[in-house]
Write a structure and sequence with these properties.
Elements: H1 3-11, E1 25-31, E2 33-35, E3 46-48, H2 49-61, H3 69-78, E4 83-91, H4 95-107, E5 111-115, H5 117-122, H6 127-136, E6 142-147, E7 150-155, H7 159-169, H8 177-191, H9 204-212, E8 216-219, H10 232-250, E9 256-258, H11 266-274, E10 279-281, E11 300-301, E12 308-309, E13 312-313, H12 315-322
Parallel strand pairs: 1-4, 1-11, 2-3, 4-5, 5-8, 9-10
Antiparallel strand pairs: 6-7, 12-13
């Protein structure tokens, strides 16, 4: 029996209506991309338009129309009773503006968008898009690479092989930026890929629409590195300079930051404070209460699979996921994220 079917069966017994607790509780939902219905990327990092719209309908019916992260934290500070939900979108993809924003506005919802300012400014694709591009556009059907003492044979002639290659290579790219760039260049050469991946992040003109629409904008560093692999000064620069660039380009404040890949340690938390952020979010699942530390706020993913049962989109599964009904089933599992 698949995990999805188990969760669907369990959701049938979970509360489906308004069950807000008396004590203030905040659930921050973590999203990334919003795809056109039917679109399937090799590295599928998001939900479809229909699923996002379904999530918002289900949450609104349960009295939990999403707000921004800053608004959710303000509700906690004020002691506002009930279960509050905030939506967040990481990275800064153009589809956050062209697809997510109209759906949010139609639902009367708000969200926070954490933008990777340096990559947006340089019009440069992030490392995971470079990886997917190399595997998808390979002109050679196979190759063998060795990174950091790990030898991997790639068979990228067909979809299943490309998926297997992606899973094998993702953890090998958790290295410092210079080594990451070198490994991706070697991969392109091994697979016969001459061009770089296109940048699918929003440009500044598009990103300004988020501000105009009254959405919260947060930082996601300049170049999306694994922060704990950097020096304390480099961590602080990645954070502070990203906020400065966003202020310059969009004319807005950036109260919060999302650590790329959720990667953080005590030095990262100190660097976020020193950079002037009021809060920071991570990728660990959980809820936020008034006493939660503000520089490692938990977020719960609400993926397409988490909301889809055997008969399609399920409002009950969406609400159960939001309420953390299945957290214990995933205890100890490493969560993917960007």
């Amino acid at each position: 029996m698949s995990g999805r079917l188990v969760r669907w069966l369990l959701s049938l017994g979970a509360p489906g209506g308004r069950t807000s607790p008396e004590a203030p509780l905040l659930t921050i939902i973590r999203h990334h991309r919003v795809y056109a219905n039917g679109e399937r990327a090799l590295y599928h990092l998001g939900v479809s338009e229909d699923v996002l719209a379904g999530q918002l309908r289900a949450l609104a019916a349960a009295g939990m129309t999403p707000v921004s992260v800053a608004e959710g934290l303000q509700r906690l500070d004020k002691g506002a009773a009930g279960h509050h939900v905030a939506f967040s979108f990481d990275d800064g993809y153009a589809d956050n503006v062209t697809r997510a924003l109209p759906i949010l506005e139609k639902a009367g919802a708000r969200a926070t968008f954490y933008l990777t300012a340096g990559l947006m400014e340089e019009r440069r694709a992030p490392w995971w898009d470079e990886l997917a591009h190399a595997l998808t556009c390979a002109t050679r059907p196979s190759a063998t690479i060795e990174w950091g003492g790990t030898r991997v044979t790639l068979d990228v002639a067909h979809g299943p092989g490309r998926t297997a290659a992606l899973r094998a290579l993702l953890p090998l790219l958790r290295v410092v930026p210079a080594e990451q760039h070198a490994r991706l260049a070697a991969l392109r050469e091994a697979l016969g890929v001459a061009d770089r991946a296109p940048c699918e992040f929003a440009d500044w003109t598009l990103a300004r629409k988020l501000v105009t629409a009254g959405m919260e904008v947060g930082a996601h560093t300049l170049s999306h590195p694994f922060l704990t692999l950097l020096s304390p000064d480099s961590q602080r620069r990645e954070m502070a300079d990203s906020a400065a660039l966003l202020r310059d380009k969009l004319g807005c404040g950036t109260p919060g930051i999302a650590y790329p890949n959720g990667d953080h340690d005590a030095t990262t938390l100190s660097a976020a404070r020193a950079a002037g952020f009021q809060y920071a979010v991570i990728t660990r699942s959980g809820d936020v209460v008034a006493s939660s530390g503000r520089y490692d706020l938990a977020r719960r993913p609400l993926t397409e699979g988490a909301c889809t049962g055997p008969f399609g989109f399920s409002a009950r599964m969406t609400l159960a996921e939001t309420r953390g009904v299945f957290d214990s089933l995933r205890k100890g599992r490493v969560e993917a994220g960007s």
